[in-house]
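name: query_chain
kind: protein
chains: 1
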Amino acid sequence: MNTKQLRILAVVLPFLFGIALTAIRWGVFRNQLSWPVEIVSLALIAGGAYLFSTWIFRVVESREVEIRRRTDQLSALNEASLVLTMELDLNTVLNRVVNLACHLVGARYGALGVLGEDGRTIIQFITSGLSDQERQQMGPLPTGKGLLGSVIHGRRTIRLDDLTEDSRTIGFPPGHPTMHSFLGVPIQSKGHVIGNLYLTDKQPRGSSDASGYESFTSEDEQIVEMFATQAAIAIENAQLYRKTQQLAVLEERERFGMDLHDGIIQSIYAIGLMLEDTQHRLQAEPSIIEERIKRTLAGLNNVIRDIRNYILDLRPQRFQGKNLHDGIVELVRELQANTLMNVTFDADGYDTELLSNENSVEILHIIQEALTNVRKHARASNVAIELQFDQRDCRVRILDDGVGFDVNSPASARGNGLRNMRERTSVMKGSIEFVRPETRGTEIRLTVPVGR
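structure:
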């Protein structure tokens, strides 16, 4: 049954009740009736019922309109919140926040002021409803003074029928459109204000007059405050996502730098030593020069290949496809070929299935860095490498009889080598120690967890 039918019944039923009462009085109780009086009474009953029903249903319809508008706003709020949760790009989120806020309450103009770390200064100002030309004519963006600053410093909502009549308004810059009704809502998260929404000139429903406006209501204020809570979550998520991306880029740069230092740069250094040795033997041992030149060219080709792999965003290929044992054997042979040191390698209980390929490559880079340091700085005569395995750990021990070094010295702290070795060990969730034996030299102890 619709409202029109209920309105008819509200008039007809009292009228029929009056007729029934008159009939009972005349037919049952035999009362003498004055028909003109009865007719007037029935007319008054019908008229009163009509007036009362009209008033009641007007109130009911008004409430229905308000409920429908409230329902529409809540539905729009829900849709706006869902839209925000689907976006992670910070700039896109900020623009959507201000545009959706305007849509929720029918504001012609909107702005989102993003605050700096001090929580008091606007560092970013995103607008809605203004053309590019209007924005350019406005000059510098607001910094958080006047009425806008009151929302920032007061940390509470401000709703005005006409902002031009408020004493906190400091006026509009040249080229700025005149605005009247105002709603400013802080965006807060964890007790801190991270931004503010500013909405002006609520548009009358169904009005085509662009210059008209009406005041924001308390319901508008509640809706925007609820939306501001969702906006705070979306903004923080987008900021966290941006920081995560930046951190990933930094970590990738660090990885490239570490691999370049431990892989390509060490290979170039080794090639340089080979060329120096070749130069020294050129006169004394010309018969072996050709073989050394071949090895040098092969080393240069490996470096070129590694650099090409970096350009293609691939990992260096020197240790790819080699197990840990074979990789150490290659490093030992290289050290023996390019120095006069006595290098020994002892492996106990090696099992290729106990260690992942990724960890094998990381360990080989650590050993390569350690042997390069021995070759460059230790002035050692003997180097011993030990590899041990059990069901829990892979242990590598590198011992030389050189001059040794202080791991805590400023020079050691400035270098990339030790830092890279520690970082590679941390990635594998292992441990590394740099020990100075009682006699002389340096001992490195590397332990990496393994598992089947």
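note: The mean pLDDT is 78.
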